[in-house]
Amino acid sequence: MVAGEDAPLLNAAPKRRLLDLAAVLVLTVGGSLLFSINAGLIIENYSHDALWLRLTGRLFTTATALALLFYVLAAQGRGRRDIGLSGCWSDLPWAIVLALTSWYAVGGYNFLRMYFWRGGVMPMYSGHAAEISAHVTPLVVVVLVLSAAYEEVIVRAYLMTEAAELTSSRWLAVALSVALQSSYHIYQGVFQLGAKAVGFLPYALFFAWKRRSPPTILAHFLINLYIVWRWGRI
Q1: N or C: which end of the chain has fewer CB within 10 A?
Q2: What are the backbone angles phi and psi of residue 16, rounded to the nearest 5°?
Q3: Comparing C-alpha atoms, which of 117, 133, 138, 134 is closest to residue 191?
Q4: Is the pTM of this model over 0.85?
Q5: For position 55, what pLDDT does the model report?
Q6: Which pLDDT value is given to residue 71?
Q7: 91-116 vs 190-210: helix axis angle to the nearest 10?
């Protein structure tokens, strides 16, 4: 055997191997480590600061997920523009139109659901919004921004771009995006899945049409912010 033939691949690409290692460790054990450190530091006030713990956990999860996506895109020789992530001034009016369309679509869905389903008041999940509205801080705003970006970049822009190119069907991409995004909101109740699907559909249709992600991110953020503000006034 030639000397050095069995040397690890680290010699050939140390930076790439190091980044891969860091990504795996951060995404697999980072969240647990962060939660344990936080809980250990404030164990006496654990119940009082449970919201803060959840927010920091959410912040960590969304930030690392977005970092992983951009890492994967870079490894493929692609960038943010390849998934429609580039801004311009027209994003703001489009975001407002999308937010209003989504909001009133959900309102119409809930009205029809209440009209045809006469078993009583339909439950609407509001626990997190009500709790967060009482403790609005810069951390809450950052989490709301990153949460909107997390969903709209990964489950909308990235998923729809890949699905459309791999299947040659924008309609299938729309269906997959809306179905997946709605499914992980099932903790809000089975009946709310339909409302989520109706609310997310305008975003998916817009992205299929324009292939622009910033308006959907901003619209999603505006809806989240309004919900928090609204529950703070009740």
Answers
A1: N
A2: -65, -45
A3: 117
A4: no
A5: 79
A6: 87
A7: 150
